[in-house]
Amino acid sequence: MTTPSEHPDWTTTGFSTRAIHAGQDPDATTGAVVPPIHQVSTYKQDGVGGLRGGYEYSRSANPTRTALEEALAAAESGGLPSTPDGSPAARGYAFASGLAAEDTLLRAVLRPGDHVIVPDDAYGGTYRLVARVFGPWGVEHTPVDLTDVDAVRAAVRPETKVVWVETPTNPLLGVSDVAALAGVAHEAGALLVVDNTFATPYLQQPLALGADVVVHSTTKYVGGHSDVVGGALVVATGAQLPGGLASPAGGTDVAGAVGFHQNASGAVAGPFDAWLTLRGLKTLAVRMDRHQANAAAVAEFLASHPAVTEVIYPGLATHPGHELAARQMRGFGGMVSFRVGSEAKALDVCARTQVFTLAESLGGVESLIEHPGRMTHGSVAGTALEVPDDLVRLSVGIEDVEDLVADLERALA
Ligand SMILES: *Cc1c(COP(=O)(O)O)cnc(C)c1O
User: Which residues are annotated with the PTM N6-(pyridoxal phosphate)lysine (predicted)?
Assistant: First the structure.
């Protein structure tokens, strides 16, 4: 018999090696190479308080969820220096949905009277949460164009505790400078939070650019197969709560406060959802490579089509954020938006595709088409976040690109 070998330090390996292995050592008892679905609520104690591996009750911790949380933290930790005591540079927390993750984060770091800067084309659900759930609890917000760093600096108030960033944004694919915004937020004593759902940790690593917290709807590219709803937070280990705030659990670090609130509010990912998400994460890099190759071809086709008045894709040299995206990201992603001149024409295109499925959401292997004004962004109609009514959004899948282009050609004819 040979003794089992130690695994390498995953923080020193490449993205896919981390995504496939971190937190996912073969099962100690059976050697199963994939973490089992621990479909269980409670754990036998070896005498009162004698927990095995720290597991007590599955709201507090569950081994399948732990595997996902460690893998997500490792995936987002590229480029981060390891901590002096050898503890992880970031910690992951998995939730029942992206919005559950956002809700838990905002409860952990904000108090009544605080102020949040939000993107003026934020994900509609994020805006609704900030404006209509946290607003009545005394949290104020200002929508700002985050591509304008000076405008963000001008919107900062003494009460500003969070600068919330999406880049690229949904659905207008605006690109903002994470490192510059981190500078503005930290000068103001606020946290920089980046919703990295569109870019994914493969294409963009906000923590290495200075962000304190990364948010994911793992429902999208991380899960990647349109079969699970989930969310995650990845918190830089050193990040401190803004304004000298202390966590109800004691301590002043963001990670500790988020861990406390995850358990205290309980919007956790279930074991099967965590397992599906972990399975998706393993193939994220290969899927993203194909998503963005297909998206680039689709964007080029649309740019040459007479019925299309504007194509919005960060990979096009005509996109105002093209150079920044090229610097800040490993690639330009799989989302493409375009305009066709009128709402009636946009609705018509959405109704006529056959390979692109008319549906909300994004990031799955299958291509989707939608009308943001009437679908995903219906909840922000009449606000500063309203989107143009002739806009069509594509989540370009990993099918054969000739079929995707032919489908759009037919729908636009
Ligand atoms: C979908 C989405 C969310 C919300 O996530 P859910 O999993 O639907 O709760 C947040 N941010 C972005 C950018 C999204 O696309």
Answer: 220
